[in-house]
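Good morning,

Attaching, inline, the backbone tokens for the sequence recovery test we're adding to the shared suite. The designed sequence is right after.
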């Protein structure tokens, strides 16, 4: 007998509906997570009550008509928004994404039959216990992602389920059942019918999964439908002693070496060598080289992220990491301060993490990360000493420059010059010293740093 502890604000809803003669269950991902020993992030409910009946039952509560036509009502319970959907069957899926119509049902089996995967097709209530009609608990215990019913039908109904299946397998570390896996490959072109925003959302979760490298490696043809720019990397021989893997294999190992919780870092790892096939050259000794591949890769990544409608912040951070992943930084105060002056501490550490992951994905004998460790040590020292790295840190201000007779652009130019001198260790960040230097050089022809 499986027992799930349901929060009070959820029980308030289920028990209210049950007291009025209706069935009500928690369903889907929250049941899956609870049975796996994880705390559910949110709770979805399904009930035999129609939307009109639910509105009557919850007339004293705040309700939101989330999608009454499709049977969904949101009820606010103790400050939590809970979606309740009427048991239903779906009509034809004409766009491979949404049902053209829905029919309400009083039978929980009808509702569970239309769901995507067995591990998501379980329902639970304290009154009834666990309802598992399709072997979901067995698949959960065995680590299997398997479609409810016919996989081809499930994916034809909603093409996004293809990415959801890969995402679940990646995040949960599950295997995809053979027939489901074959259907994913067979039906992969359906992804072209899905909104790019939804694809990106699934991709971001997938790349942060515990088995992301395995799923991206096995299902590269599927991923290639939404990221065709990656396909030239598959099987691409680098012909270089630094690498014993093809470009895609090296990419996936780099990804595996990155912290899973850092979505920006993981995405940058996926794209970091995407420019290699376009920049490949072979020297007279038969050794392969990829001149300027970081810049070319950044341009490709930028185009991909724009096509997927990624946020500007996400796109810019990922593109910058790709562009700079081969940039050399000396493990010295001056070089580290220079880099830190144009990057946040978080972004600098991310760049170092990508550099280390990239190096560790090279052939044996070329995995030395001592330079990255030295840079990290210098960075920690710079941060600890709270070094002057921005104009805000500078102990000379615009009003000081104004008092010297500088005006307009001259003020900014002089402050920038002073900052660079301080970063390079040529001047102490002392107000009197900075003003004295500015006074001495204020009549220079050009104080700007170009």
């Amino acid at each position: 007998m499986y027992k799930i502890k349901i929060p009070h604000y959820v029980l308030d809803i289920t028990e209210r509906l049950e007291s009025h003669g209706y069935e009500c269950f928690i369903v889907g991902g929250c049941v899956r997570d609870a049975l796996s020993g994880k705390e559910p992030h949110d709770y979805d409910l399904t009930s035999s009550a129609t939307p009109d009946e639910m509105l009557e039952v919850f007339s004293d509560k705040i309700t939101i008509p989330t999608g009454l036509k499709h049977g969904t009502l949101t009820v606010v319970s103790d400050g939590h928004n809970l979606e309740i959907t009427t048991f239903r069957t779906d009509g034809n899926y004409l766009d491979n994404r949404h049902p053209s119509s829905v029919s309400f049902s009083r039978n929980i089996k009808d509702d569970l039959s239309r769901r995507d995967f067995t591990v998501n097709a379980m329902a639970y209530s304290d009154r009834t216990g666990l309802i598992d009609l399709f072997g979901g608990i067995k698949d959960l215990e065995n680590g299997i992602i398997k479609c409810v019913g016919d996989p081809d039908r499930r994916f034809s109904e909603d093409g996004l389920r293809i990415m959801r299946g890969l995402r679940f397998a990646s995040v949960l570390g599950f295997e995809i059942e053979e027939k489901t896996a074959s259907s994913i490959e067979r039906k992969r072109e359906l992804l072209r019918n899905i909104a790019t925003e939804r694809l990106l959302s699934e991709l971001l979760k997938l790349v942060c999964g515990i088995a992301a490298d395995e799923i991206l490696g096995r299902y590269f043809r599927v991923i290639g439908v939404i990221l065709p720019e990656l396909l030239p990397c598959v099987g691409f021989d680098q012909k270089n002693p630094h690498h014993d893997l093809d470009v895609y294999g090296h990419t996936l190992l780099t990804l595996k070496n990155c912290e899973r919780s850092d979505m920006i870092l993981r995405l940058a790892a996926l794209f970091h060598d995407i420019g290699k096939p376009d920049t490949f050259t072979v020297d007279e000794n038969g050794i392969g080289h990829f001149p300027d591949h970081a810049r070319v890769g950044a341009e490709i990544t930028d185009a991909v992220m724009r096509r997927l409608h990624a946020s500007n912040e996400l796109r810019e951070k990922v593109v910058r990491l790709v562009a700079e992943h081969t940039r050399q930084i000396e493990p010295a105060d001056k070089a580290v301060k220079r880099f830190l002056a144009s990057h946040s501490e978080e972004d600098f550490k991310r760049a170092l993490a990508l550099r280390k992951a990239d190096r560790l994905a090279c052939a044996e004998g070329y995995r030395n990360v001592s330079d990255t460790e030295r840079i990290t040590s210098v960075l920690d020292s710079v941060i600890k000493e709270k070094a002057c790295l921005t104009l805000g840190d500078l102990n000379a201000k615009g009003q000081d420059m104004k008092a010297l007779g500088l005006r307009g652009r001259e003020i900014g130019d002089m402050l920038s010059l002073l900052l660079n001198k301080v970063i390079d260790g040529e001047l102490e960040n002392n107000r009197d010293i900075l003003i004295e230097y500015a006074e001495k050089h204020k009549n220079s022809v050009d104080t700007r740093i170009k």
